[in-house]
Each structure stands twice: as C-alpha cells, then as structure tokens.
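S.,

Sequence below, as promised.
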Amino acid sequence: MSAASTDLVLPASPLRAWQRHALVAYHRAAGSDFLVTATPGSGKTTFALAVAQTLLARRVVDRIVVVCPTDHLRTQWADAAAQVGIDLDPTLTNAVGPVRADLRGYVTTYAQVAGAPMLHRARTDARRSLVILDEIHHAGDGLSWGDAVAEAFTPARRRLALTGTPFRTRPDERIPFVRYDDDGDGGLASTADYTYGYRHALADAVVRPVVFAAYTGVSRWRNSAGEVIAASLSETATKRTEAAAWKTALNSRGRWVPHVIAAMDERITHLRDHGVADAAGLVLASDQDDARAYAEIVERVTGERPALILSDDPQANARIREFTHSTERIAVCVRMISEGVDVPRAACLAWMTSYRTPLFFAQAVGRVLRARHRQESATVFLPAVRPLLALAAEMEAERNHVIPPPASGDDLLDALDIERPEPLVDGSGFEALESDAEFAHVLHGGRAVLAPSLSITGEDEEFLGLPGLLSPEQTAALLARRDREMRRRAGAAAAPGPADEMDAGADDAPAYAQIAALRRRLSAMVSAYCLATGRPHASVHAELRRRCGGPPTPQATAEQLEQRVAAMATLQR
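The prediction came back faster than expected:
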C-alpha cells in the first residue's frame, strides 16, 4: 500500500522513497516497538524525525527523547531536529532533573542513561514519549547497559530503534525492545521491521557507488629472534606473516603510507577538478601516535596541513563540524569518524588502521557513501590483506554482525565509539624496518579486477573524475599507470633523513630531495602570507597556479616549484 492510499499525513519536508515506505510501515505496525535497519548514509535520522513529526501532529506523543552513542551525535541530532521544527536539548545532563518546558525533549547518550536510568525513566514517564534509540546495538556494549535502557524507557509510549548494521547477540545478552530469531548457530539474530540495505540504496542513488583500491607491497621487519623477514602483503603464507607485514606497512617510517596517501590525494584532486569542488578524504589511524605521524606525512605529500581529529581532544567535536563545512582536503582521525558522523563531502577513505571487524568496516566505509548527486563515487584505499579484502568483497551483501561487549566498562569513550583492535602481532622483539607500496587491483562487484594491458588516453584520465564512465578494468589500468608517480611522491614524503635536509639548490642533492625542500619552502611562504593577510591557503595556491601554470603543488616539478617560490616572493613584497 502506498502512502497516498492511507490517511497518513506526510511531513512537509521531502522524503526519499524508502523513507515514505518505511513511514507507512511504521504507522501500520501494531505495538510500541519498531526496528529499522538502513545502510549508513541512507537517511535514518530524517526518517526518525519524520516519525516524530507525525506522532506529534497526531498528539500520540508530547515528548521526544533521542539516545545516541556519542556526544558529537547529540548536537548533530539536535541540529537536524531543529530544521524540522522540533526543539531538543543536546546539553541536558544527569545533574539537571526536568526537561525545559519550552523544549520538545532532549538528546542523551547510552552512557548517560546507564549512569542514571531512574532519572531518564522519570523524564520519560512525565510525558507521553517517543524514544529514538540510535544505533541500538550500543545498548549491548556493557552488561548493565541493556538493563539500564530497559529500566529507563519501558514507560515510553513509543520506541523507535535504528541501526546501520544488522547484529547478532548471545542468548544471555538480549538488547531490550528488539525481536530476535534463532540464527542457527546457537545465537540470536536481530529482526528488523523494515530493512533498507546497501544494494537497494545504491540502486536508488541514495548512496555512492564505492570502489575499493587495494595496495600491496613488500614489508621488511625484524622478529624477536633477530631475523630479518620480508613478505608481500598479498602473498603471505600464514596469518602471522600477514599480520607482521600489515603492521610494518602501517608504520609511518615506511613508504607504504605516503604512497597510498599520495594516491588518495590525487583522487581528491580529480574529483575537485571535475565538479566536486569540496571533495575530501579521511585517513583512519589505529591510535593517536599513528594519527599524528600520518598527519605529518599528509602535509609533506600534499603541502597542506590536514585536520587532526583525536578522541581525547576536547575540541574534537568542534573540529569535526569545522571540517564538515570547510574546504580542507583531508582529515586524519582515530575513532572519532565512525558511525553516525555525517561528512557528506568526504568521498575518499584511506584505511590505515588495524581495525578489521565487520561492524567497524561497514560503519567507517559508510562515512564516504552519502550521495549528494549522481556525479560522485567513493574510493576506499586499503591494504591488500585477506581480512579487509573479504569485508570489501561482501560490501553489497546483507550481513549480520556480532557485537561483543567491551573488555572493561571503565573506558566509556571506547564503549561509546568502537572497540580497540586486537594487536596485529606480539610487540615483544618486533621491529618494523621498511615497506613499499604497489597498486594491486580494484574490487568491483565482489571480484578483483587486475590492470589489463589497455590503452588509457588523456581523455580517459579526465573521465576518471566522472565516476561510472570508466569500466573497472580501465580504472585498474589507470591506477596502475599512475603508480610510478605515486612511488616517487612516497619517496619524497618518507620519514625525513639527511637527504631531506639538503638545500633545495644543491646540485648534488637527489631530485626528490630538491622537490621536497622546495615544497617545504613554498608551504612556509604561503603559510606566512596567509597568516599576515587572512587569505585561505587554497586561494593562494590557486593564484600561484594561475600565474605560473602547471599542476597542483604535489605534482609540480622542481622548475615549476621554483617559479611559484619566485611568484610568492613577489606577492609578499
């Protein structure tokens, strides 16, 4: 039955087809609980607020309570609700009792509910309430969290549960207000009342098509016995060797990381040159030390300082909002860019983390899937290791995800965000020595597409910026063709050594060292000029390109960089 054939009055704001159908299904369903599983980026927040609007209009409820995983999402929910005329308080703490009379409700986190379930029960019981449980699987993150959610929100008139990934659980860890079926393996699988998967969202152009670009390379490390071992990421004989090669590749002192960052940076440039002017990329790191090291590499490769977003930074939420609405090219983050965080302009993702759980993979890739128009696609750059390739190959499949409880309930930030990765290898005696990178293949439709011997013209290269116009084979051939240039840029951006400190004009300095020094000099001049004038870095670099010609700074030759340094000196006078 369509929405037009019911007496349902749809909200004034436009809804996607799946949201209209889900809204009709919601109002036709009997009972107080409703679970929606919708792929990341498809618009679960908009749907939930449409439900809230209709229930408020019908006077079924008087109060809206939203429970979400993180503090950043509290503000995001409140902002979205305000746009449809529902005023929610994202700052209400457990220390404050009642909800302000001039607001429709509030937004809280699962941790806050667990800290004072009876307080939230009293707030819910004081008005006829709709409780929206965002990413409901987080109610199973701690042994007491599910109990707290049940205690707090049992009095609610209606409960709407949302998740971006179906989930399984053990029989003794049922999440409240969720129906389960036997999964056949001794566990329970969540049963959604409405499901909208990636395959459907892709067909509706609600999400971007995603291309996974896998990069292999040889890693060298010293084991606890003092032996030096070398292995390819994609050709390891054992899981232990694969883990060591993977860990070495992620080490910031090698060339794998700068190589892949250079490849992502070039992809961003192509997107920006072909109609996606604000295209951006995300670099996912395993920990804060890696994130800081990767940020330095990004600056050396691109000539621009990236946004650095760390979970322990009190300004992290503000930095996410700033990056979302800025023109910065790349953000390097650890744990903060996960489920629910909305950065629509992010179209590239560099997987430089040891996280490898199906849940986190789906949620993190979901950050670059949100479609704005049909001229965009997403590109995920990842190590060519079996655990990640298997997850990428299954991207279009409907999957259930096991959500284990955290090892400790003390670290609420970890429990609210994502679980820490297991160590790839035992750190005792392990020493990463060096690594390089090489394009391996793209994954398309669950298969690996190698680079064939195709003739790629300059016109084909231009079309790479318009997703969908190149076949997977052409895309693979083009990435392989550019791989030599990426290797040069990686060498220039590797961990600084004596050669990197040579004077740019020294005749005996290697070419890459001259280029690296010129780029550092140009970057310093631009930074000083922007600090003095208030002009954005991007506009100054664009003016230099107009004056001197040539490609973006990361692709410029030594001669072109020298011309821009001279032009910059003229500007500074």
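The two ends are 71 Å apart (CA to CA).

Coffee later?
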